[in-house]
């Protein structure tokens, strides 16, 4: 393992997948990678390509990668691809194949990213699959535990089921579901009551629900799948740690907790606690701001080091033909300056690694010639030139002190409620509306140079101001925790229909808001319209101007609260109330959704005003520039100011800093065109197009 004090940032890519690159190029590629500042390679160690017959392992091409890594001082991460099942194993255990929602067994197909068979085919709930995976992982760890150049293992690529089609309904999974339910409810009588089924007479009659809908059994199935995938993730980590206690365990999620917790167990908060270094995949399919992706993963890492584990480096050719519309994002990373910005948007959130899923592109399959920084023959390109510059800057003596600092806590936080995401999935058959509300609120804050961290309920005590997007479903426990938090001094800002449902999909019949929140918000519901089709263009007239909303419309009768906004008909749309030592605001619609759709200036100003209402100042602000994002890091002896330039042209920005948070006495340029101190605790800085400037504040 390398000395991280000498290269604090891991810069590299996935290199070897069994089908590529060709062996004749390996040593040349390693030598070039070393010259270009690459510090780490990750390789896919596919079970199906290694255990070629029962108990017979072919390690030779993989051993060669470790030998070359040691020779050229490049760290190695072994990606354990235990979900790639050997052909003989599939043939031996045909009943262990995953079963889809329609009762059909999965078919053995090629993996597009590796060109081996058996990917995502078999269900780990089956004991034979568990034993096979455990035997493979133990063999892997035993073989490499004393190998020079090995940095660690990457467990369960992207830590999710990828899409709902991979949720399994086989008999072994249903058996585990029944065990899970019996532990939760204690008896069949209680399950009948909870599920409104009434007539189960045997646990054998209980099935995994094969429908999507806002019913108790559907929510139980979501929670079960999340619990089981966490269990099997821990299982994989345990096998490797026991076989090889000498090396680190890493993993990277799919970076889509804003959409995927309910749909396919993509809850990044669940997995990070089992590993030494956490990370994430991020590309256009994540459908959120790139900085938001990093901010979510920093939150899920909960203090651990994290990496941008997969970042594209060229066009994507998959699914493209003359019968479909052009998707611009598929070509976005073919432009070197966009790769540079992509990296800087990851680093500004605190990532200390940046890896491409392709060093050079694949040569076979649907993803041929896609994503790579280098050419199909391994030659340098204009894209690799920009990554070389960044890699060498990251690990230069000039930048070394920077990486000892860390991003500061956000000005406020956005609260992820997995029960609300699940309700959105049950009602709307997807999680898009939930994600739009969350992402839109994040976009409005970042466009206002307000750092909004993305958190879960167990993290709220670290923040004094919280915005809650799409808060429709809450458990009683969540309500109690939030009520106590406000009473102790927190400022809660909620979108409409707060806690309208419990965490079982029950639309609560008594007073809305309910479970004590009529007192917290100081108001009661006058009426509600829950039709997103009618409410797409809903506008609220706030004290700061018009605010675009959408999805639902809830109006209020004020009690102790004051009215802070109305609908067009004059009914109350926003209330603000003092409660205990804290304060609570509710908006009867979804401004996050409204900003996601329209990105209007008036709505942005309203979001910006929420920080003022909380009695707080922005840590760093650059109001007079388009596409400028400023962030502060703090270290032991100094602070650092990051200034991102999203624009396609150079910019000069003046960034004012809150003097109570950081005092500017001297400014030293670490990256960028130029910098100078300005009046009123400000820094003036020049930034290259689609790049970042970094200034050390002394």
Which regions have little confidence, pLDDT < 50, spanning 5+ residues? none
Task: Give the overall average pLDDT.
Answer: 96
Q: Assign the CATH architecture of the largest domain.
A: Alpha-Beta Barrel
Which percent band covers the strand fraction?
A: 15-25%
Largest sheet: 9 strands, mixed
- The CATH C-level name of the largest domain is Alpha Beta
Can you count the beta strands? 30
Q: N- to C-terminal separation?
A: 33 Å
Say what oligomer this is. Answer: single chain
The helix content is 25-40%
For the biggest β-sheet, the strand order reads: 13-12-14-15-22-21-20-17-18
Helical stretch count?
A: 19
Q: CATH superfamily assignment of the largest domain?
A: Glycosidases
Shape type: globular
State the secondary-structure class. Answer: alpha/beta
Count of separate structural domains:
3
CATH topology of the largest domain: TIM Barrel
Radius of gyration: 26 Å
Describe, in plain words, how this protein is organized in 3D.
With 698 residues, this protein is α/β, with parallel strands linked by helices. The protein is 31% helix and 22% strand. The protein has a 9-stranded mixed β-sheet, sandwiched between helices. A 6-stranded parallel β-sheet has the order 7-6-5-2-1-10. Strands 11-24-25-30-27 form a 5-stranded antiparallel β-sheet. Helix 14 (418-428) packs across helix 15 (432-447) and helix 15 packs across helix 18. It is globular, with a radius of gyration of 26 Å.
Summarize the structure.
Helix content is about 30%, strand content about 20%.
């Amino acid at each position: 393992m390398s000395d991280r004090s000498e290269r604090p940032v891991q810069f590299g890519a996935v290199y070897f997948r069994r089908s590529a690159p060709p062996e004749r190029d390996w040593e040349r590629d390693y030598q070039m990678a070393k010259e270009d500042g690459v510090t780490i390679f990750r390789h896919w160690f596919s079970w199906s390509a290694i255990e070629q017959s029962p108990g017979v392992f072919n390690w030779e091409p993989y051993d060669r990668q470790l030998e070359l890594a040691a020779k050229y001082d490049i760290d190695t991460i072994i990606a354990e691809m235990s979900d790639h099942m050997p052909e003989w194993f599939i043939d031996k255990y045909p009943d262990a194949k995953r079963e889809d929602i329609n009762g059909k067994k999965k078919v053995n197909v090629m993996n597009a990213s590796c060109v081996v068979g058996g990917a995502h085919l078999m269900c780990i709930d089956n004991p034979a699959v568990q034993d096979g995976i455990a035997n493979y992982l133990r063999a892997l760890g035993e073989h490499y535990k004393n190998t020079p150049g090995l940095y660690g293992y990457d467990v369960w690529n992207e830590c999710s089921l990828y899409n709902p089609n991979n949720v399994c309904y086989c008999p072994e999974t249903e058996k585990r579901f029944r065990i899970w339910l019996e532990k939760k409810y204690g008896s069949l009588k209680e399950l009948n009551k909870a599920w409104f089924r009434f007539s189960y007479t045997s646990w054998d009659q209980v099935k995994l629900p094969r429908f999507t809908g806002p019913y108790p059994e559907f929510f139980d199935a979501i929670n079960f799948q999340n619990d089981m995938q966490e269990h099997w993730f821990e299982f994989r980590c345990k096998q490797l740690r026991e076989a090889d206690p000498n090396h680190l365990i890493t993993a990277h999620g799919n970076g889509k907790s804003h959409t995927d917790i309910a749909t396919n167990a993509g809850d990044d908060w669940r997995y990070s606690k089992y590993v030494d270094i956490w990370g994430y995949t991020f590309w256009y399919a994540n459908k959120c701001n790139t900085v938001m992706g990093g901010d979510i993963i920093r939150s899920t890492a909960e203090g651990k080091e994290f990496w941008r584990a997969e970042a594209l480096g060229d066009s994507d050719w998959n699914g493209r033909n003359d019968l479909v519309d052009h998707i611009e994002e598929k070509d976005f990373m073919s432009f070197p300056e966009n790769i540079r910005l992509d990296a800087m948007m990851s680093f500004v959130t605190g990532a200390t690694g940046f890896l491409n899923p392709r060093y050079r592109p694949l040569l076979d399959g649907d993803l041929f010639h896609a994503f790579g920084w280098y050419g199909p023959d391994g030659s340098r390109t204009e894209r690799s030139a920009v990554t070389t510059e960044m890699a060498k800057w990251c690990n230069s003596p000039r930048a070394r002190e920077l990486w000892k600092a860390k991003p500061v806590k956000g000005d406020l936080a956005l609260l992820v409620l997995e029960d609300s995401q699940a309700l959105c999935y049950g009602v709307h058959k997807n999680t898009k509306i939930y994600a739009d509300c969350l992402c839109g609120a994040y976009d409005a804050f970042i466009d206002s140079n307000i750092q909004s961290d993305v958190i879960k309920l167990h993290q709220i005590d670290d923040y004094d101001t919280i915005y809650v997007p799409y808060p429709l479903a809450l458990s009683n426990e969540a309500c109690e925790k939030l009520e106590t938090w406000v009473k102790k001094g927190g400022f809660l800002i909620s979108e409409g229909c707060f806690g309208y449902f419990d965490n079982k999909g029950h639309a609560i019949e008594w007073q809305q808001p309910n479970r004590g929140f009529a007192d917290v918000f100081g108001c009661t519901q006058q009426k509600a319209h829950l039709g997103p089709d009618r409410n797409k263009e809903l506008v609220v007239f706030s004290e700061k101007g018009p605010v675009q909303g959408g999805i639902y419309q809830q109006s209020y009768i004020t009690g102790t609260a004051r009215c802070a906004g109305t609908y067009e008909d004059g009914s109350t749309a926003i209330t603000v109330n003092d409660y205990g030592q804290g304060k609570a605001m509710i908006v009867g619609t979804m401004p996050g959704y409204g900003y996601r759709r329209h990105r209007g200036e008036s709505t942005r100003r309203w979001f910006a005003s929420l920080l003022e209402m909380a009695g707080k100042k922005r840590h760093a602000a650059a109001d007079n520039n388009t596409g400028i994002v400023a962030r502060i890091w703090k270290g032991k002896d100094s602070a650092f100011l990051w200034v991102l330039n999203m624009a396609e042209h150079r910019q000069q920005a003046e960034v004012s800093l809150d003097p109570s948070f950081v005092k500017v006495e001297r400014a030293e340029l670490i990256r960028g065109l130029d910098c100078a101190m300005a009046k009123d605790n400000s820094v003036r800085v020049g930034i290259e197009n689609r790049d970042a400037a970094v200034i050390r504040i002394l």
